[in-house]
Amino acid sequence: MFDNRQLAALLQIARTGSFEQAARALHLTQSAVSQRIRLLEERVGATLLVRGSPCRTTDLGARLCRHAETVELMELSLEAELTAVSKETARPTFKLAINADSLATWFIEAMASVEAVLFDLVLDDEGHSADWLKQGEVVAAVTARKEPVAGCNVFALGAIRYCATASPGFVSRHFPDGFTAQAAMKAPCANFNRKDHLQERFVQTVLSCDTRRPPIHWLPSTQAFVDASLAGLGWGMNPEILVREHIAAGRLVTLADGQTLDVPLYWQESRLLAPVLKPLTRAVRHIAARRLVPLPLPERAYARPERPA
Predict the structure, then answer these.
(1) Which residues, at least 6 apart from 260, have a Cβ–Cβ distance to it below 8 Å?
(2) pLDDT over 90 for what percent of the chain?
């Protein structure tokens, strides 16, 4: 058995990056925090922290932090089942995996709807965010995966609608004869990162062909995608909610006669921690229903929460 006070010290150092900040958060002296870490490292027989600015955990230290976070949330979950959680209870930290476009368009509103909660967000492509759940790194995720991760409930949220956009000047230079395969192979486009295949999917869907990769700007920012389109740097798939005003004002134009791509999204949560996650899950589903494009009925029906065994 591990000493919860020692685990709490390790977790606070991992969250704050320093012994001093951890001591302040725990209302302890820095020497007391150092003593707890020393005892914990002696207990496991290995180094748990790489001292520096900031401090960071070793692989084993990270595993113990995940254990500590799970225990912390399980205790809150049990308390939520037995009684109303007291306002004096320490705020839980929910570590979540989220795709950048959801964070930039609707998820902040859901977060703001939940009181007395802290958030620790991991950004990843919607096609890969469920992997964080599988590895036990997060307690919930917005993901494109509709099949439940083992031990998780899954809820259909809706779809982000993407428009292929570019500035009028860019279109006149690179697509004078329309969005053709030949032009698409030569016109620069924007990609978020190496996991981003939206532009490739759009070309394949609209032109019904595979093309070699065009010149690419790597722009790991949702806002940078919009700005790059406005500046005439390249074309890209932007969330419709972010560019509709630019399109209406003529600052951007859509390619391929305004055809769009819808990316379905699902909310997956740890079933074990569902009671304590309930307010967040409710908020996520409510805001998504208002901001996202509804999914077809078969997909909505598929993504029901699993029944506990």
Answers:
(1) 161, 162, 163, 164, 240
(2) 64
